[in-house]
Amino acid sequence: MFDDAESDPKLLSDEADRIIPTLRTQLLKAQYQHLNKQDRALLILVGGIDGAGKGDTINLLNDWMDPRHIRTIAFGPANRSDKQYPPAYRFWQALPPKGQTGIVFGSGYAPLISEAVKKRPDTRKLEDMVLMARRFEADLVANGVQVIKLWFHLSRKAQSERTSRLLENPSTAWKVSPLDKKVHKRFSRLRDAGQRIIEATDSAHSPWIIIPAADENMRNVRTGQAVLQALRRQSIRVPALHDPAELPKLRPSINPLTKLDYTVSIPKDEYDEQMLLWLNRLAEAVRHPKFVKHHSLVLAFEGQDAAGKGGNIRRLTRAMDARQYKITPISAPRQFELNRPHLWRFWREVPAKGKIAIFDRSWYGRVLVERVENLTPKVSWRRGYTEINAFEQQLVNHGAIVLKFWLAITEDEQLKRFKEREKSPFKQFKITADDWRNREKWKEYYRAAGDMLSFTHTDLAPWHVLSSNDKRYARVQVVKRVTQAIENAIKSHD
Predict the structure, then answer these.
(1) CA distance 307 to 27
(2) pLDDT for res 242
């Protein structure tokens, strides 16, 4: 795999002088065509042997191309603030929009490489990290992000000589990190780890390209050619995992909504008593040191129009410090959000440990309104189930308590509430033409909700399907279940 790179091929200066002006012109032209077309983003992940000139090459790309449309992203070791969020959080924040190019220095593979290079790597952990990387890249490509990965490599001798040469000159010595100085001592192990990672994560939709890095001219030209080829691709290849022909058929299931008892209710005096009890317990739970240190809370509210999502959220927050929670109402995505993968705008709202994120409607719009209204191709909303499950699993793996509530009402109850809203001066703002139009597609939304509840109910992030025909009953159940989930999480640390 590394034979060519470790032979340290050179490109004569005369030849480089002939190639580079044309290459630079072609790169700029392709970059602007990519910018104007805006059909995808280009993400370049840069990795390889330390001391192979990765930083210099990234600077060169910013010089050869228009840097205004390039986002250079460098991830160092996670600091205390970073560790408050899932590992993928930083990466999602940095994704470039369609038309632009992102260059990730360190490639996002640093934790994987760190594990693989150990004398006794944790095989299970390594496999999980590889699967996560493959899945993440496949999801990005399927959602309009072209991914190429550049691995800079050279021989042990060339790496050692380059490091010594840089150290001799005070103006370049700063480029040599402590890791660069140690590479020659453990070169074989780094080489083997690199090969193992490349073989495990190389794919047609996000390929690794090995760049010979000993000779500056060769390194620069090969890098420029790889980026040019990526920019010139007419379309990005959809991963087999997401190809319509490869997707499994949705399994038949019984719609959970058919089993719901819409007659459940609670008397007002009992409601007042129960609500006070659970709100007091919730107030104590969200302030508990073990919750603040180890957990965050993610609440997603879905349901038919007028089912009481806003009312339930308002009751919950009575037990919370306004500095601890954030309510995010979800509506149709804006253009800058459409220019990035579907889940990008939700990753932006992921809470840090000790914080609470409340979503009034959520990422489930992909498999509800976008499906019913034909706003998204079938293949996109079908793969939405697995993408959403993977997203929620990452949150839970980092300590988030994820609870999803479907508030259900009958058609008759919805009609009654719609009419009440039209008559009330305090509620008229809640009823829109879209609400009436959505009502005409009751059966389609009912079917879509049933599939969603079946395919995305997991032990880690369960759905709580509640009848909301009686608002008091639903409100007590929501506060009770949120409180119990936090209390159970706290007890797990005893």
Answers:
(1) 54
(2) 55
Name the 3-class secondary structure at 81: coil
pLDDT for res 277? 97
Average pLDDT of the chain is 91
Q: What is the pLDDT of residue 253?
A: 66
Q: What is the CATH number of domain 3-242?
A: 3.40.50.300
Query: What are the pLDDT digits (tens) for 50-98?
Result: 888 999 999 999 999 999 999 998 887 888 999 999 989 999 999 999 9
List, for the chain, all residue ranges whose pLDDT scores fall below the cut of 70.
106-108, 240-253
Q: Where in the chain is the domain with CATH 3.40.50.300?
A: 3-242, 256-491
Which of 3.40.50.300, 1.10.1420.10, 3.40.50.150, 3.30.230.10 would CATH assign to domain 256-491?
3.40.50.300
